[in-house]
Design brief:
It is built from four helices and 17 strands. The strands form three sheets. Strands 2, 3, 5, 9, 10, 11, 12, 13, 14, 15, 16 and 17 form a twelve-stranded mixed β-sheet that branches. Helix 3 packs antiparallel against helix 4. The longest helix has 21 residues. The chain is globular and about 75 Å long.
Length: 339
C-alpha cells in the first residue's frame, strides 16, 4: 500500500514538474567574448539572472576568443552583460581588455526534435538523505568507552571496534528511492536519428563534453545561475544555483546505437521494462548486442519508476531501461518507443 502511494506521488510530481519545465524558458545563451591580456577574474554580470565567471588569467600580449554560456531571464532578452573583474589589478591602466562580441545566432538544437519527445516527462530528482537511527549515538559512545578500557590490549580493542561497526551498519542507511540527485535520460523513437537527452542535477551541473549545443531549464524558473568557465579548457562548463533543479537539454544522435526487440546496440542495462499492449513487464538485465530477454519473475518491480512511465505515446510499445551503474556517475535511463 505504501509503495503504491509512493509511486502515485512520484507520478504526480513528474507531471507537475514536466508541465513547468516544458513551459519554462531557456535560461542560457551562448556568447562570444574577446580577451586581451593581462586579465584575470573576468565576470560577465547579467544582474538578477546571474553571472558567468571566466576562471584563469592571460598574460600581457595573450589573446583569446571564447564561446561561453551566459545566464538570461528569457530567450527574448538580448541585453549585453556588464564586464567586471573579481581580481582588480594593482595598476588599472596596465590591465588588458575584455569585449563582449555578441550573442551566438545558432538556433536551438531542440528544434530538431519531434514534439512528442519534448512532451515526455522530465527526470524527478531528490536530494540524498542519510537516515541515522537514534540508537546509533548510544552504540558509538559504548564503543568509545570499551575502546578506552581496552586501550592496552590492542587485539581485544580491534575486535570491539569491528563489532561496533557491524552493529552500527544497519542503523545508518540511505534508503533507495525512485529518483536520484543526478540523472541522465535518453528519450527516443527507434526509427528516428535525433533523440532528446536530459542531464539533470540539483544545485550544480556540468555540461557533458560531448554536448555542443543545449538549453538550460531551472526549477524554480527564476533562480539565479552562475556559470563557471575555464580559460584553459573550452568545454566542461558548470552551472551552479543553490537548491535549484537544473536540466541541460540537448540532442543525442542515435546513429547505429539503436534498440530493437532483436538487438540492443546501445548499452548494457541492469534493469529493463517493456510496455506492450498496455501492460508493463519486467525483463531484467539486457546485455549489449543481445536480443530483449523474456519476462523476468525475479526482477525487483514489474513496472518502472512512475515518473518514467508518464506522458508516453499510446498505442505503441515502449522500452525503459537503466544502464549498468558506474561509480560517481549519474544514473542513466533510456526510454524508447519501438515500432
Amino acid at each position: 500500500m505504501i509503495a503504491g502511494l509512493r509511486a502515485c506521488a512520484w507520478v504526480v510530481l513528474a507531471l507537475f514538474a514536466s508541465a513547468a519545465i516544458s513551459s519554462a524558458q531557456n535560461r542560457a545563451r551562448l556568447a562570444e567574448v574577446e580577451l586581451v591580456g593581462p586579465v584575470s577574474g573576468v565576470v560577465l554580470d547579467v544582474g538578477r539572472a546571474g553571472s558567468t565567471r571566466i576562471e584563469g588569467s592571460l598574460s600581457a600580449g595573450e589573446t583569446r576568443r571564447l564561446t561561453v554560456p551566459v545566464p538570461v531571464d528569457s530567450d527574448a532578452l538580448h541585453a549585453e552583460p556588464l564586464v567586471r573583474f573579481d581580481e582588480p589589478a594593482l595598476d588599472v591602466g596596465a590591465r588588458g581588455r575584455v569585449r563582449f562580441a555578441g550573442w551566438s545566432k545558432t538556433p536551438s538544437p531542440l528544434e530538431r526534435l519531434a514534439a512528442g519527445l519534448r512532451a515526455r516527462s522530465s527526470p524527478a530528482l531528490s536530494e540524498a538523505r542519510v537516515h541515522v537511527s537514534r540508537a546509533a549515538p548510544i552504540v558509538l559512545v559504548a564503543a568509545l568507552v570499551i575502546a578506552l578500557a581496552l586501550r592496552r590490549r590492542a587485539g581485544l580493542a580491534l575486535v570491539a571496534a569491528l563489532a561496533a561497526a557491524a552493529v552500527s551498519n544497519p542503523l545508518v542507511s540511505a534508503p533507495a528511492r525512485e529518483s536520484d540527485a543526478a540523472v541522465t535520460v535518453l528519450d527516443g523513437d527507434a526509427d528516428d536519428e535525433a533523440w532528446r537527452r536530459i542531464d539533470a542535477a540539483i544545485g550544480e551541473i556540468t555540461v557533458p563534453d560531448e554536448v555542443d549545443a543545449f538549453e538550460l531549464v531551472c526549477d524554480p524558473a527564476g533562480a539565479p545561475v552562475t556559470w563557471l568557465v575555464s580559460l584553459d579548457r573550452p568545454s566542461g562548463w558548470s552551472a551552479r544555483s543553490s537548491g535549484t533543479r537544473l536540466f541541460v537539454e540537448s540532442v543525442f544522435a542515435a546513429g547505429e546505437a539503436r534498440l530493437t526487440r532483436g538487438r540492443n546496440a546501445l548499452a548494457a542495462f541492469e534493469q529493463t521494462w517493456l510496455r506492450d499492449e498496455g501492460a508493463w513487464t519486467a525483463r531484467g538485465a539486457w546485455p549489449i548486442d543481445a536480443s530483449m530477454p523474456p519476462t523476468s519473475s525475479s526482477a525487483p518491480s514489474s513496472s518502472p519508476p512512475g515518473w518514467l512511465a508518464s506522458n508516453l505515446p499510446q498505442g505503441v510499445a515502449v522500452v525503459i531501461a537503466r544502464e549498468v551503474s558506474a561509480p560517481r556517475k549519474p544514473t542513466v535511463w533510456v526510454r524508447v518507443s519501438l515500432p
